[in-house]
Design goal:
By secondary structure, the chain is mostly beta strands. It has no helices and six strands.
Amino acid sequence: MDPVVLLKGLLVITDSGRKIGRVQEIIRRENTNEIKQFIVSSLFAIKQEVPISQVKKIGSSIILKSSYNVPKRYFWQKT
């Protein structure tokens, strides 16, 4: 089993504790196990891409860096 598969479904939160959603998909760099980005989704928010460079810590949940600006986009808002 690939280790990145274990990250699928983890809760993604900001540095301040705001819940963003859960990891729906993991994008890897070519055929390696190195993570390029996460696709995060929640019940009412549009899927968003979070680059690995914006991740502060991965443990029982994924904590984003304080510099990451979380977009407030919901499915009823036009982009």
